[in-house]
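S.,

Sequence below, as promised.
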Amino acid sequence: YSVMVDNAFGAINLYFQKAILPNGICEVRVDNAFGTVNLYIPGDWVVRSTPSTALGAVTNQHINPDDPDAPVIEIKASSSFGNIRIL
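The prediction came back faster than expected:
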């Protein structure tokens, strides 16, 4: 599965708590400019992030579990003059 988020001058909150990943993996691409995007990831998922910033910030506050069979979310985050938070 894949998710694409494009935010400009706004605020977006995405909650993945009720998401079901039949194959155990999801790719998320976030493009943010002059805004804020918050991604709320379940605690039992593994986060792999690839940040790219231009006078912006991508912060990952998620703590990955030790479970080798945990679902994986791959986040490609690009932020210009804004903030992306992975929680």
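The mean pLDDT is 97.

Coffee later?
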